[in-house]
What we know:
With 311 residues, the protein is an alpha/beta fold. It has helices at residues 19-37, 60-71, 92-102, 113-122, 137-151, 167-179, 195-208, 218-222, 242-248, 256-259, 282-285, 292-310; strands at 49-54, 75-79, 105-109, 127-129, 158-162, 182-186, 211-215, 227-230, 267-270. It folds into two domains: 4-135 and 299-310, Rossmann fold (3-Layer(aba) Sandwich); 139-296, Aspartate/ornithine carbamoyltransferase (Rossmann fold), CATH 3.40.50. The protein contains twelve helices and nine strands. A five-stranded parallel beta sheet has the order 7-6-5-8-9. A four-stranded parallel beta sheet has the order 2-1-3-4, with helices on both faces. Pfam families: OTCace, OTCace_N. Belongs to the aspartate/ornithine carbamoyltransferase superfamily. OTCase family.
Amino acid sequence: MRVNSLSGRSILSVNDLSVDEFESLIDLSIRVKKSVKAGLFGLEKEGRIITLLFQKPSTRTRLSLEVAARMLKAHPIYMGAGETQLSRGEPIADTVRVFERMSNCIVARVNSHSDLVAMRRLSRVPVINALSDFEHPLQALADFMTLKERKGSLRGLKLAYVGDGNNVAHSLILGAAKLGVWMSVATPEGYRPSLEVIAAAKVEAEKTGAKIDVLSSPQKAVEDADAVYTDVWVSMGQEAEAKKKLEALRGYQVNAELMKLAKPGAFFMHCLPAHRGEEVSEDVLESPASVVFDQAENRLHTAIAVLYSVL
């Protein structure tokens, strides 16, 4: 049932996965969810040690990974920002070389993506990105799982992303390129997705038939979209530039007027937590079109699929 090619592999980016591996993880996640709902879940990685190193706060990511590990009969060990010697200046290189000798897998939520790259280089066990300043691959897996559950097929769908071209946007763009999805991104100047990510996505899109657009107009991006996605405007660690970002993104709120431009029955998506009245209006977040809590639930099933496959 696992994605066998991922055994022992690290996942720092969506682009660490082939098209087949990304699609297979989504399909495995859907099968896992069905088995859980039917009371037939029987996957096990009994006795495995999964160390969770989190430098940033977390709700959905931490909960989904800890529950996933326990459902697999593995043992999650959570270590927060102030619970290791990292908080007193120990280099990440020293920390990871201790962790990998006592763990079967390291799942890390870090301030800098470069720390994950260093961890992968130094670790003999898989390292999984649970969010960095550059990507959030576990979130993208859950998001595309949610869309596939609802739509049946992903190829040819249009996913609009409105707001800050951040880590979540990067993973969605790379995922869309692998899945043949039309990704239409609207951001203000200065808050565009990474040129490196866009270039990599366009290379993949040429093979899969996906389409990647980066625009300034939210209205143009959302036009005829099957789903509309946004995220917080001020991410963790960006508090110092909050005022500047809020001003720049003021015209990028997803509200009822903007949703009217999408296809009838289009879904609203958000990785949460949401700042109601900023990136999304209250009525849209609480509308029947909103699938945000399905996305959150699916974080569990994708976490199970990933851990089961790499362990």
